[in-house]
From TrEMBL:
It catalyses: 2-C-methyl-D-erythritol 4-phosphate + CTP + H(+) = 4-CDP-2-C-methyl-D-erythritol + diphosphate. CDD domains: CDP-ME_synthetase. Keywords: Isoprene biosynthesis, Nucleotidyltransferase, Transferase. This is 2-C-methyl-D-erythritol 4-phosphate cytidylyltransferase. It comes from Pseudoalteromonas fenneropenaei. It is an enzyme of class 2 (transferase). The lineage of its organism: Bacteria, Pseudomonadati, Pseudomonadota, Gammaproteobacteria, Alteromonadales. PROSITE patterns: ISPD (PS01295).
Amino acid sequence: LKIAAVIPAAGVGSRMQLSYPKQYLKIAEKTVLQHTQEKLSQLNYLSHLAIAVSADDPYFATLNLQDERIVKVIGGETRADSVLNALRALQADAPDWVLVHDAARPLVTVADIDNLVQSCLAADEGGILAAKVKDTIKRGTSHIETTVPRDTLWQALTPQFFRFNELLQALTDAKQAGSEITDEASAMERLGYPVRLVAGRSDNIKITSPEDYELACFLLTKTGK
Ligand code: CTP
Ligand code: MG
């Protein structure tokens, strides 16, 4: 069984409001992208690790990443385009399954990734790590229209794990249809595939805004995650 991984790392990080992409922010001497890559590199069952970076990225080449399974791929305009480019680059090796994990989520644990992979392989279905919503959720613009029952609400995390050919087909189809998707699961849902929800740690946060970075620094350095 061949399992590949994709790390989309070709975003500009506009919400972080820096002069460079957030995946190159440093936490304890290493960039966010290195922390993330080192987590995935601990998975010895991966055949390849494709990292999608922007065409004009001057930083990636300076990182000196140590894993021989790493393949650099040029990313696209959207996250979905970046993942699609990476899948096309991996296609010649014909992986059976693929894990897709945001560069901006350095706090993921190997235990959670293993749990996702095991649970999906056992059920022979794709799935994602997700965390149950903890806050009371309101819908509205300036005032509350309604309180949304949260018992069946989940936050979608990554990794997301799918059969390689099905994900390639789903992302290609979503692109052709001009459908805006922000994760792999959305593309699979569009085509009616079942997608498992596998409970993961809620501290697997995506570094999106400056306060997320502060939290990630704390979690990665103070708690040794
Ligand atoms: N990503 C990518 N290619 C893109 C856009 C995003 O590979 N064209 C990656 C990012 O580098 C990040 C992950 O997808 O690791 C999650 O996306 P997001 O958090 O939205 O990152 P950015 O798009 O960089 O940030 P923003 O939306 O604030 O600009
Ligand atoms: Mg984005």
